[in-house]
Design brief:
alpha/beta, Dna Topoisomerase Vi A Subunit, Chain: A, domain 2, four-stranded parallel sheet, two-stranded antiparallel ribbon, 8 helices
C-alpha cells in the first residue's frame, strides 16, 4: 500500500514521543486510523488544549494550569521542607508513595555541561533566592544517581549550606524485594555506604 504524504506525516509525528521508533509510530498511526478515530480526536483536542493552558508553577516550576500549583497553594503542606526533583513526573512518584508532606522545586533536568545545561537552565538562581529568604529548614535532594544527578546534588548541597539550610539526600540502594545477586555494583555500593542502624 503506497503511503500518502499525510500518513507519512502522522507516522513521523508519533516519533516525537520518547521510545517510539519507526515501527511503533507506524503501529500507532494505523491503530488510530483503523480502530479508534474517536479516541484519536479526543487525544488531539486534549493535546492542543494542554499545550495552550498548561505552564509552569511560579514557585516550584512544575506543570500546572494555574499560576501557583495545588501543592504550593495548599496550607496543609510543610513549607519548611523542600524536596528538589528533576521532573514533574518525580513529584507524581513521590506523591504516589504518600510519604512526604513538604513542598517541591522542579529543576526540569540536571546539570550537564557537555549538553549545555548549567545552573541558569535549571532555575537555580530562583532556588537560591528562595533559600536566602528563609523559611526553608531542610532541602531533600531527590535527583537521580547518575553522574549528572550526583553532580547536581553536590551543587545543590553547597548552595543550601551557604544559606544555612540542612541538606539530606534520598537513600539509594537495594530495592524492596530485590536479591543481592541481581543488584548492580553501583547500586550495591550506594546501599552499603548509606547503611543505617537497625
Amino acid at each position: 500500500m503506497p503511503e500518502t504524504g499525510l500518513l507519512e506525516a502522522l507516522i513521523e509525528a508519533f516519533r516525537c514521543l520518547p521510545g517510539v521508533g519507526p515501527k511503533s509510530a507506524q503501529r500507532m498511526a494505523f491503530h488510530v486510523l483503523e480502530r479508534d478515530r474517536e479516541g484519536a480526536g479526543r487525544l488531539a483536542e486534549t493535546l492542543l488544549e494542554g499545550l495552550d493552558r498548561i505552564g509552569r508553577c511560579e514557585r516550584c516550576r512544575t506543570l500546572t494550569e494555574e499560576k501557583i500549583c495545588r501543592l504550593c497553594a495548599s496550607p496543609n503542606r510543610d513549607a519548611s521542607l523542600l524536596c528538589i526533583v528533576e521532573t514533574p513526573a518525580d513529584i507524581m512518584a513521590v506523591e504516589g508513595a504518600s510519604v512526604y508532606s513538604g513542598l517541591y522545586y522542579v529543576l526540569m533536568g540536571r546539570l550537564s555541561p557537555l549538553d549545555g545545561v548549567g545552573p541558569a537552565e535549571l532555575g537555580l538562581e530562583r532556588l537560591e533566592e528562595r533559600l536566602a529568604r528563609g523559611g526553608v529548614n531542610e532541602i531533600i535532594i531527590a535527583t537521580s544517581s547518575t553522574v549528572e544527578g550526583e553532580a547536581t546534588a553536590h551543587y545543590l548541597g553547597e548552595m543550601a549550606h551557604e544559606n544555612g539550610v540542612r541538606v539530606t539526600r534520598i537513600a539509594h540502594g537495594v530495592p524492596l524485594g530485590g536479591e543481592l545477586e541481581y543488584i548492580d555494583r553501583t547500586t550495591l555500593a550506594h546501599a552499603f555506604s548509606g547503611r543505617r542502624d537497625l
